[in-house]
Write a structure and sequence with these properties.
Distance between the termini: 17 Å
Structural class: mainly alpha
Order of helices and strands: HHHHHHHHHHHHHH
Number of domains: 2
Number of strands: 0
Helix content: 55-70%
Largest sheet: none
Shape: globular
Length: 268
Amino acid sequence: MRVRASEWIAIGYFVYLAGAAVVVGWNGRRGQQRRVIGTAAAVVGTVLTIAWLDTPAVLLRDWIPLAYILIGYWIPALFVSSTNLAFERVLLALDRRLGIQDMTTINERAPRRLIELLELAYLFCYPMVPIGFACLNVAGLRMESDRFWTAVLLAVFGCYGVLPWLPTRPPRAIERASVRSSGPIRRVNLHVNRAASIQLNTFPSGHAAASVATALAVGFHVPIVGLALGLIALGIVAGSVVGRYHYAADAAAGVALGLVGFAISLFV
């Protein structure tokens, strides 16, 4: 049985969450603790089982990291009982110093079409990773699966793993009185966010990290496709801040993690 580098990353991340669940004080929320440990153990068992099966499960093995990302996103929210108000104030203050205001001010200052374009770009943060991986497969580069997932998993798990220690609300929640729908695409984004989000802000931004890592991992082999994905990633990063889905510091740190994840993947 040969465990891939990306699979070791998944194992390490979920072992980390299980270990954190053991040492964190849950204050009467033992059910949450058991869910974290049980889910982490199940994922690690799944990773090892699929690695042991190898060839018979090769297609599943290539695509199942998408499930690891989703589970890895949801589990850290179980740790959170309240947000870090002091850190929220720091992030908001930094936005203000950069001239980034609430949605009312943004709507008044920025062209409507630009806002809609950035909202559309941000909508791509959800299918960005599977689209990127599909592009590699279509290009006949399935052998690069491990390198791709190494870049992406390092980037996103580096974001999600911080959530138990620095939980914050997204800026749109704090600036609730100022958030107005600026068009149909934003309404779709807000609906998807309500339905599929943990309603917490990840610092660094997982969307920025995953998008950058995906664009770089694909672009390394297919430059034209990587350029297109890179432009989308840039729109996702900008849209996350302009739409107040993330703070500027989230987006910047997410971009940095995406770069780090990609750089490390080159050694796989």
